[in-house]
Amino acid sequence: MVLLVLYIKATLENVREIQFPLSLPFHVNIKDPVGFEERENVTVDPQNVNELENSRGEAHFTVKFEGQMKQSSIVVLDEVKNVFKKEASIPESEDGRFVPIRGFECRGVDITGFDKFSESSGSGGVTVTSKAGTVFEDVHLDEDWYEYCEKGGESVSVTDVEYEFRVEKSGK
């Protein structure tokens, strides 16, 4: 089993916090770690629970690669001990720093790419709260985002968004 953690960093202007709903689906590219089969833009949805074949376990995404005997799976973790707690977010104090958002417990599958919460992926977006308290929902971070906060009378933006997966050794 490999535990990957998605880290995100961004430049925040007049933003108090970016929140990532626990129900947010992720669109990722995957690969068979022992073969050549790859699949792009598959949905790993924390609200979708699949029973694993020949097991009592469950996963948020399952796949059986051609030629493989066992089913491969991904479980989305909303908390990883010693890495991040539930309701992970990017607060203004973490402006410009990589922040852990979600964990992915991968068995028999490698995550090779991430769709970055684009509108075209069909998933909902994240929630951005301005310093003045205005809440902007379904924000997509695949490109720079700009808005105007009437309550605070100032522009609000999330720019220079970067993503990376890191292998973690911590348990659930």
Automatic annotation (TrEMBL):
One of its GO terms (molecular function) is zinc ion binding. InterPro entries: CXXC_Zn-binding_euk. SUPFAM superfamilies: MAL13P1.257-like. Keywords: Metal-binding, Zinc. Pfam families: CXXC_Zn-b_euk (PF05907). Belongs to the UPF0587 family. This is Uncharacterized protein. It comes from Bathycoccus prasinos.
